[in-house]
């Protein structure tokens, strides 16, 4: 018996206004300005996704690969609910934890501990839940004495560490990951990957965006390859990534 779908895209198309893309960049638009800029009949429109259909079964890990501007971040924004499709339908079934822009809810003048509480509350945790998980979050981040320092003194890698450490303690049912493992040192990236694999073993549904075919093959069951907003490949992760490698080599 097949597993029920946690995520289902049916003929999904998404347009953005061309002037919005030029001014802010597509990824910034998807992650930070979703309710300000919608598809408009005025001005030229940019098609970020064009008739995309796929399903992610409950407990499955789906990889998404493609060049910059191929539609990967738009896909995650639609799953997370911060964007709505211009046409077609997006269905989700489960509590979603989006690791899209780590640290976007942090305050630069607060120290690491205070930002853990701030970010945790913004992601839906209660202060009591955060206190109960604080030692685990701190230990996972490996930031030590830096947690008493204001966030503005952190490097981008340190901010990502803190954001990832908070997010992975949310007990999600659907986890969306956008290139977060590429930030920071190799040892911490390996630790993050191990955490993702443990989530997969627990039956958590994962959608993992990466430019690395090796990372997708290591983590994912199946994959989609997006190219110019269209589906260039969809199926077994190893086969899709091999097709992607061959296309990039030509």
Write the layout of secondary structure elements.
Layout: E1 5-17, H1 18-24, H2 26-32, E2 45-57, E3 61-65, H3 72-80, E4 87-92, E5 96-99, H4 112-122, H5 127-141, H6 156-167, E6 174-178, H7 186-201, E7 205-209, H8 213-219, E8 222-227, E9 230-236, H9 237-249
Helix pairs in contact: 1-2, 4-5, 4-6, 5-6, 8-9
Short account of what is shown:
The protein has 250 residues and is α/β, with parallel strands linked by helices. The chain has helices at 18-24, 26-32, 72-80, 112-122, 127-141, 156-167, 186-201, 213-219, 237-249; strands at 5-17, 45-57, 61-65, 87-92, 96-99, 174-178, 205-209, 222-227, 230-236. Helices cover 39% and strands 26% of the residues.
How large, in whole angstroms, is the Cα Rg? 18 Å
Total number of strands: 9
Helix content: 25-40%
Work out the strand percent: 25-35%
Q: Could you say which structural class the secondary elements and strand pairing correspond to?
A: alpha/beta
Quick one: biggest sheet?
Answer: 6 strands, mixed
Element-by-element helix/strand order: EHHEEHEEHHHEHEHEEH
Low-confidence stretches: 21-26, 33-41
End-to-end span in angstroms?
40 Å
Description:
With 250 residues, the protein is α/β, with parallel strands linked by helices. 39% of the residues lie in helices and 26% in strands. The strands form two sheets. The chain has a six-stranded mixed sheet, sandwiched between helices. It has a three-stranded antiparallel sheet with strand order 2-1-4. The radius of gyration is 18 Å and the shape is globular. Residues 21-26 and 33-41 have low confidence and may be disordered.
């Amino acid at each position: 018996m097949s597993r029920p779908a946690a995520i289902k895209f049916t003929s999904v198309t998404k347009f953005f206004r061309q002037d919005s893309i030029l001014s802010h960049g597509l990824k910034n638009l998807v992650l930070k300005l979703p309710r300000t800029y919608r598809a408009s009949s005025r001005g030229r429109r940019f098609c970020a996704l064009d008739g995309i259909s796929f399903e992610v079964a409950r407990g499955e890990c789906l990889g998404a690969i493609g060049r910059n501007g191929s539609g990967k971040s738009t896909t995650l924004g639609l799953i997370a609910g911060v964007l709505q499709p211009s046409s077609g339908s997006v269905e989700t079934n489960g509590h979603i934890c989006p690791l899209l822009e780590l640290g976007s809810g942090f305050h630069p003048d607060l120290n690491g501990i205070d930002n853990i509480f701030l970010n945790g509350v913004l992601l839906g945790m209660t202060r009591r839940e955060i206190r109960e998980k604080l030692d685990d979050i701190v230990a996972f981040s490996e930031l030590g004495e830096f947690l008493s320092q204001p966030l503005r003194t952190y490097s981008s890698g340190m901010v990502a560490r803190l954001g990832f450490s908070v997010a992975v303690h949310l007990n999600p049912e659907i986890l969306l990951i956008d290139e977060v493992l590429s930030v920071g040192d190799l040892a911490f990236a390996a630790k993050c990957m191990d955490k993702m694999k443990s989530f997969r073993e627990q039956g958590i549904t994962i959608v993992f965006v990466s430019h690395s075919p090796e990372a997708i093959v290591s983590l994912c069951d199946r994959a989609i390859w997006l190219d110019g907003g269209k589906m260039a490949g969809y199926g077994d992760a190893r086969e899709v990534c091999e097709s992607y490698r061959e296309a990039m080599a030509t």
